[in-house]
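Sorry, explain these C-alpha coordinates?

___
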Amino acid sequence: MTTADRPAPEPRFNILRTIALYKLLKVLLLLAWAYGGVRLHDSSLIAKLIDWASARPSGAEHDMVVRLLQWFSGLSTSTMRTLRVVSLSYAAIFAVEGIGLWMQKRWAEWLTTIITASLIPFEVWELLHRPSVGKAALVVANVAIVAYLVWHVRAKGKR
Protein backbone atom coordinates (compact mmCIF):
# COMPACT_ATOMS: atom_id res chain seq x y z
CA MET A 1 0.00 0.00 0.00
CA THR A 2 1.48 3.31 -1.04
CA THR A 3 1.06 6.57 0.80
CA ALA A 4 -1.43 7.75 -1.80
CA ASP A 5 -3.64 4.70 -1.10
CA ARG A 6 -3.79 5.23 2.66
CA PRO A 7 -6.66 7.31 4.04
CA ALA A 8 -5.66 10.65 5.47
CA PRO A 9 -5.23 10.52 9.24
CA GLU A 10 -8.00 12.19 11.21
CA PRO A 11 -6.95 15.43 12.87
CA ARG A 12 -6.09 15.08 16.54
CA PHE A 13 -8.40 17.93 17.46
CA ASN A 14 -11.57 18.20 15.42
CA ILE A 15 -15.16 19.35 15.77
CA LEU A 16 -16.15 16.25 17.76
CA ARG A 17 -13.51 17.07 20.35
CA THR A 18 -14.68 20.68 20.46
CA ILE A 19 -18.22 19.45 21.18
CA ALA A 20 -16.76 17.08 23.79
CA LEU A 21 -15.07 20.01 25.54
CA TYR A 22 -18.38 21.92 25.45
CA LYS A 23 -20.13 18.96 27.10
CA LEU A 24 -17.37 18.58 29.70
CA LEU A 25 -17.55 22.31 30.48
CA LYS A 26 -21.27 21.81 31.17
CA VAL A 27 -20.30 18.98 33.55
CA LEU A 28 -18.00 21.30 35.49
CA LEU A 29 -20.68 24.01 35.69
CA LEU A 30 -23.31 21.54 36.90
CA LEU A 31 -20.94 20.10 39.49
CA ALA A 32 -20.14 23.62 40.68
CA TRP A 33 -23.87 24.38 40.87
CA ALA A 34 -24.54 21.20 42.90
CA TYR A 35 -21.63 21.92 45.24
CA GLY A 36 -22.65 25.56 45.58
CA GLY A 37 -26.17 24.43 46.46
CA VAL A 38 -24.82 22.34 49.31
CA ARG A 39 -22.63 25.17 50.58
CA LEU A 40 -25.26 27.89 50.16
CA HIS A 41 -27.92 26.01 52.07
CA ASP A 42 -26.01 26.93 55.22
CA SER A 43 -28.01 29.94 56.50
CA SER A 44 -25.00 31.57 58.19
CA LEU A 45 -23.07 31.54 54.90
CA ILE A 46 -26.05 33.06 53.05
CA ALA A 47 -26.28 35.82 55.67
CA LYS A 48 -22.56 36.57 55.31
CA LEU A 49 -22.86 36.68 51.50
CA ILE A 50 -25.89 39.00 51.66
CA ASP A 51 -24.00 41.31 54.06
CA TRP A 52 -20.98 41.23 51.74
CA ALA A 53 -23.12 41.96 48.65
CA SER A 54 -24.96 44.76 50.47
CA ALA A 55 -21.66 46.48 51.26
CA ARG A 56 -20.81 46.65 47.53
CA PRO A 57 -21.89 49.52 45.26
CA SER A 58 -25.45 49.25 43.96
CA GLY A 59 -26.16 48.34 40.38
CA ALA A 60 -28.14 45.86 38.31
CA GLU A 61 -25.74 42.99 39.02
CA HIS A 62 -25.69 43.86 42.74
CA ASP A 63 -29.48 43.69 43.00
CA MET A 64 -29.56 40.45 41.01
CA VAL A 65 -26.97 38.79 43.30
CA VAL A 66 -28.87 39.86 46.44
CA ARG A 67 -32.20 38.61 45.01
CA LEU A 68 -30.62 35.32 43.95
CA LEU A 69 -29.13 34.77 47.41
CA GLN A 70 -32.44 35.59 49.08
CA TRP A 71 -34.31 33.23 46.72
CA PHE A 72 -31.76 30.50 47.35
CA SER A 73 -32.04 30.86 51.13
CA GLY A 74 -35.81 30.38 50.91
CA LEU A 75 -35.63 26.98 49.20
CA SER A 76 -36.73 23.97 51.20
CA THR A 77 -34.42 21.04 51.86
CA SER A 78 -36.43 18.80 49.53
CA THR A 79 -36.24 21.38 46.71
CA MET A 80 -32.49 21.67 47.21
CA ARG A 81 -32.14 17.89 47.12
CA THR A 82 -34.17 17.73 43.90
CA LEU A 83 -32.03 20.44 42.28
CA ARG A 84 -28.86 18.55 43.25
CA VAL A 85 -30.17 15.23 41.91
CA VAL A 86 -31.22 16.82 38.60
CA SER A 87 -27.89 18.69 38.31
CA LEU A 88 -25.83 15.60 39.04
CA SER A 89 -27.93 13.48 36.66
CA TYR A 90 -27.38 15.93 33.82
CA ALA A 91 -23.69 16.11 34.72
CA ALA A 92 -23.43 12.31 34.44
CA ILE A 93 -25.15 12.31 31.03
CA PHE A 94 -22.96 15.15 29.73
CA ALA A 95 -19.85 13.38 31.07
CA VAL A 96 -20.73 10.19 29.17
CA GLU A 97 -21.39 12.22 26.01
CA GLY A 98 -18.21 14.28 26.37
CA ILE A 99 -15.90 11.35 27.08
CA GLY A 100 -17.47 9.26 24.30
CA LEU A 101 -17.11 12.10 21.80
CA TRP A 102 -13.54 12.75 22.89
CA MET A 103 -12.78 9.08 22.22
CA GLN A 104 -14.62 9.48 18.88
CA LYS A 105 -17.05 6.64 19.57
CA ARG A 106 -19.93 6.26 17.17
CA TRP A 107 -22.42 5.47 19.97
CA ALA A 108 -21.51 8.81 21.60
CA GLU A 109 -22.28 10.64 18.36
CA TRP A 110 -25.74 9.04 18.28
CA LEU A 111 -26.32 9.56 22.00
CA THR A 112 -25.32 13.22 21.84
CA THR A 113 -27.46 13.80 18.76
CA ILE A 114 -30.55 12.26 20.35
CA ILE A 115 -30.19 13.86 23.78
CA THR A 116 -29.24 17.31 22.50
CA ALA A 117 -32.06 17.29 19.93
CA SER A 118 -34.57 16.19 22.57
CA LEU A 119 -33.71 19.17 24.78
CA ILE A 120 -34.01 21.84 22.05
CA PRO A 121 -37.83 22.18 22.27
CA PHE A 122 -37.57 22.88 26.02
CA GLU A 123 -34.79 25.41 25.42
CA VAL A 124 -36.85 27.17 22.72
CA TRP A 125 -39.88 27.23 25.04
CA GLU A 126 -37.76 28.74 27.82
CA LEU A 127 -36.30 31.28 25.36
CA LEU A 128 -39.77 32.34 24.19
CA HIS A 129 -41.07 32.78 27.74
CA ARG A 130 -37.99 34.41 29.27
CA PRO A 131 -35.74 35.62 26.46
CA SER A 132 -32.08 36.39 27.04
CA VAL A 133 -28.94 36.53 24.96
CA GLY A 134 -27.45 33.57 26.88
CA LYS A 135 -30.48 31.37 26.20
CA ALA A 136 -30.48 32.34 22.54
CA ALA A 137 -26.77 31.48 22.27
CA LEU A 138 -27.40 28.12 23.94
CA VAL A 139 -30.20 27.27 21.49
CA VAL A 140 -28.06 28.29 18.51
CA ALA A 141 -25.10 26.24 19.81
CA ASN A 142 -27.22 23.15 20.41
CA VAL A 143 -28.96 23.39 17.01
CA ALA A 144 -25.52 23.71 15.36
CA ILE A 145 -24.25 20.68 17.31
CA VAL A 146 -27.26 18.56 16.30
CA ALA A 147 -26.98 19.65 12.65
CA TYR A 148 -23.28 18.83 12.56
CA LEU A 149 -23.70 15.49 14.30
CA VAL A 150 -26.56 14.43 12.00
CA TRP A 151 -24.43 15.32 9.00
CA HIS A 152 -21.36 13.63 10.50
CA VAL A 153 -23.16 10.40 11.46
CA ARG A 154 -24.84 10.15 8.05
CA ALA A 155 -21.59 10.91 6.17
CA LYS A 156 -19.66 8.41 8.30
CA GLY A 157 -22.32 5.74 7.65
CA LYS A 158 -21.92 6.11 3.86
CA ARG A 159 -18.19 5.38 3.96
